[in-house]
Design goal:
The protein is of the alpha/beta class and 510 residues long. It contains 18 helices and 13 strands. It has 2 domains: 162 residues, DNAb Helicase, Chain A (Orthogonal Bundle); 224 residues, Rossmann fold (3-Layer(aba) Sandwich), CATH 3.40.50. A 9-stranded mixed β-sheet has the order 7-6-8-9-3-10-11-12-13, sandwiched between helices. Strands 1-2 form a two-stranded antiparallel sheet. The N and C termini lie far apart (98 Å).
Length: 510
């Protein structure tokens, strides 16, 4: 008895097994884009010579095939070849017969038809790319159909914003599947990229090759913020994490310089186009903080209107200056890692580039998957997603992070890597981990009650030495040294700056 081939067969689908859905997009009954001849050619080539599998394994996966039978056949071939076993007509016939699925893949006759349809030579790679291309087109039609159905007959929670979010996530995930990376590159190209980085450092007087933070000692320690790096900036509440991040964002955006390349695209030669995800503070609060840093007028005074006309003029001028910056803020709360990635990609396209991305803060980013087995797994998904995004966008990403309360229990409250919340995933995925620490903050809360006591004099001296001083502790750096950098800190306007080399240890307390 002859088995029936899976439906539709190549003969039923036309001589070449191809369907062009784009030419007749108006016909709702038209079959989804596919090419059975290409699928048969690829499967037949693998059955004829298993070495063909390694040439196309990084181009397609089972889900890219149109026929369910072809998906099962490719999956079975992949499993057997990966296990060091032979995948041919005989072994697959035995496998599917044992599983009771021989009729589902068309039987022995269809396995023979596949071998007769085998591609030979380099064309198998072209056929695999055709299969993937048509798979992507099918998924696009499915997304469009689902979006149309939900827009026409919405469910209770299907607002327009919800549907836009669905479309963004679906297209982002499809884009991730479609990119599949670039594979191996020649060492010559890698060396050329390395020389370009060295040249950038040389042109900046040998100081930095990455995006500048505007804080000289920190730039010297890090060499700037390097592309594709995930940088964690952590600290306890009131240490100034957000302030330092906004300082860096402003400094980088204010130094932006670009030049036009021969191909018409733009290249950043200094500074950065900055994207800032402010998940805790509103964009107005963040803008007020930046203006306070520029004018020296506290944000509290700006909120209460406690300032003079001259101060108002400073605020107005600073606002005009800040408005010119290539600094973009998204203050959407409860954003997921997939939504964040999609918006970052969109910003990179729409802004004509993106050189630095800042997230305030890590623990407020949601995992895309709701199947996580706990908070540690959720944070792990987020940090892995941010590291992948940094590489994909080729920009440094600064993600702020909270620290556990274990810091408060120690006599020396300087943070350590073990103080990171969900530290395993954060420390593992980060290229750089920095901590913000202000000794002054803790000393203020330990003032002795008797001003004439020896303890008070000791406290006073220590307080005098630490006033207006902040430490950035580099606890991990893949490409450079770890250590401590001291910065100045103005608590009134939450501004970090370069600390003078000759620091006056004898100034009065304010």
């Amino acid at each position: 008895m002859t088995e029936t081939p899976p439906s539709p067969t190549p003969a039923q689908n036309g001589a070449n097994g191809a369907t062009n859905g784009a030419a007749h997009a108006h016909d709702e009954h038209l079959e989804a884009p596919h090419n059975l001849a290409a699928e048969m050619a690829v499967l037949g080539a693998i059955l004829y010579d298993n070495n063909a599998h390694q040439r196309i394994a990084d181009i397609i996966d089972p889900g890219d095939f149109y026929l369910d039978a072809h998906q099962k056949l490719f999956d079975a071939c992949t499993a057997r070849i990966s296990a060091g076993q032979i995948a041919d007509g005989v072994t697959l016939h035995e496998y599917f017969a044992t599983q009771g699925q021989l009729s589902e893949i068309g039987g022995a006759e269809y396995l023979n038809d596949l071998i007769d349809s085998a591609a030979f030579g380099p064309e198998i790679v072209d056929y695999a790319r055709i299969i993937r291309e048509l798979s992507m087109r099918r998924r696009l039609t499915e997304i469009g159909a689902e979006l149309r159905a939900r827009a026409v007959r919405p469910e209770e929670d299907d607002s327009a914003d919800t549907l836009l979010g669905f479309a963004e996530r679906a297209l982002f995930q499809l884009g991730e599947k479609g990119s599949r990376g670039q594979g191996f590159d020649s060492f010559s190209n890698a060396v050329a990229d390395a020389i370009e980085m060295v040249e950038a450092a040389f042109k900046r007087d040998g100081k930095i090759s990455g995006v500048p933070t505007g804080l000289d000692d920190l730039d010297e320690k890090l060499g700037g913020l390097h592309r594709s790096d995930l940088i964690i900036l952590a600290g306890r509440p009131s240490m100034g994490k957000t302030s330092l991040a906004t300082n860096i964002a402003y400094n980088a955006a204010a130094r932006l310089q670009r030049e036009k390349k021969a191909d018409g695209t733009w290249k950043t030669t200094d500074g950065a186009i900055v994207g800032f995800f402010s998940l805790e503070m509103s964009k107005e609060q963040l803008a007020t903080r930046i203006i306070a840093e520029r004018t020296g007028i506290s944000s509290h005074k700006m909120r209460t209107g406690e300032f003079q006309q001259s101060d108002y003029n400073k605020i107005r001028d600073a606002a005009t200056e800040v408005q010119q910056l290539q600094l973009f803020i998204d203050d959407t709360g409860g954003i997921s890692i997939s939504q964040l990635a999609a918006r970052a990609r969109r910003l990179q396209r729409s802004a004509g580039g993106l050189d630095l991305l800042i997230i305030d803060y890590l623990q407020l980013v949601n995992a895309s998957s709701r199947k996580s087995e706990g908070r540690v797994q959720e944070v792990s998904e987020v940090t892995q997603g941010l590291k992948a995004l940094a590489k994909d966008l080729n920009v440094p990403i600064i993600a702020l992070s909270q620290l556990s309360r274990a810091v408060e229990q120690r006599e020396d409250k300087r943070p350590q890597l073990s103080d990171l919340r969900e530290s395993g995933s954060i420390e593992q995925d980060a290229d750089v981990v920095m901590f913000v620490y202000r000794h002054e903050y803790y000393l203020e809360r330990t003032e002795p009650s008797d001003p004439n006591s020896e303890a008070y004099q000791k406290w006073y001296q220590e307080m005098s030495d630490s006033q207006g001083v902040a430490e950035v502790i580099v606890g991990k750096q893949r490409h450079g040294p770890i250590g401590k950098v001291e910065l100045s800190f103005d608590a009134n306007v939450t501004r970090f700056g370069n600390r003078p080399k000759m620091f006056d240890q004898g100034r009065d307390l304010h």
